[in-house]
Amino acid sequence: MVSKIVKTCACMxxxxxxxxxxxxxxxxxxxxxxxxxxxxxxxxxFLPNGFVITATGGDIWGGKLGCTLxxxxxxxTGDFTIEYTIEEHTAEPPVTWSxxxxxxxxxxxxxxxxxxxxxxxxxxxxxxxxxxxxxxxxAERGGDASPGSNGLTPLQWPVTYKIVRTGDLFTVSVxxxxxxxxxxxxxxxxxxxxxxxxxxxxxxxxxxxxxxxxENDIASTATAKIVDIKIxxxxxxxxxxxxxxxxxxxxxxxx
Length: 255
Prior knowledge:
Layout: E1 2-4, E2 18-20, E3 23-26, E4 28-34, E5 42-47, E6 50-56, E7 67-72, E8 80-92, E9 100-105, E10 114-119, H1 125-131, E11 133-138, E12 159-166, E13 169-175, E14 183-184, E15 195-197, E16 205-210, E17 214-215, E18 218-219, E19 221-231, E20 234-238, E21 243-248, E22 252-254
Parallel strand pairs: 3-20, 4-21
Antiparallel strand pairs: 1-22, 2-3, 4-7, 5-6, 6-19, 7-16, 8-12, 8-19, 9-10, 9-16, 10-11, 12-13, 13-14, 13-15, 17-18, 19-20
């Protein structure tokens, strides 16, 4: 039997969405997933219309996540359309594989099944011109992530994304004019689709993940500003976060 030991703050009130006109005030929580290889911590600063998220080292790939994740406290059941804007995403020192974006997860756990929309940085030439945006999927708990290699490029900032869930199908598009017009993230020449199918058991968690990555044995710190988050047309604003969970593989034990 494997159990996870977590550190949480005292405030864990389960406040859900409070509908005010077309604005939802939502409770968020922050999790740090330490893969014991690269991730060295991060943080989230909440804004009236979003947040600034940071992560040092780590990777959103492989069998275990190493990233900062800010997620809605109450999970979601059923279909949805989510739009959000990444105003800027950089890493210092610049690295190729800092990734940030929305994550739909079965569990708040480093091995969870997930759908993640990668968005790479603006201050690394390879990331800008080769990696860009694509859908990364881990279809089952602890499984491999895919697909690898390049995505839609070049990105322009601010960049707005839209993900639509219809049953088990997730479809992603991107906008460079604030959401007035969208285009597919598919790159047929690179074998990249604009959709993926993952069989989740409702409810699922909706959040935003970021990793910094490591190059030349140096951990990079990534910073991303994510704003104007909408679910089914309703604008999400932040309430004080419900808590912070730190999960490190050093804290796993076998009974």
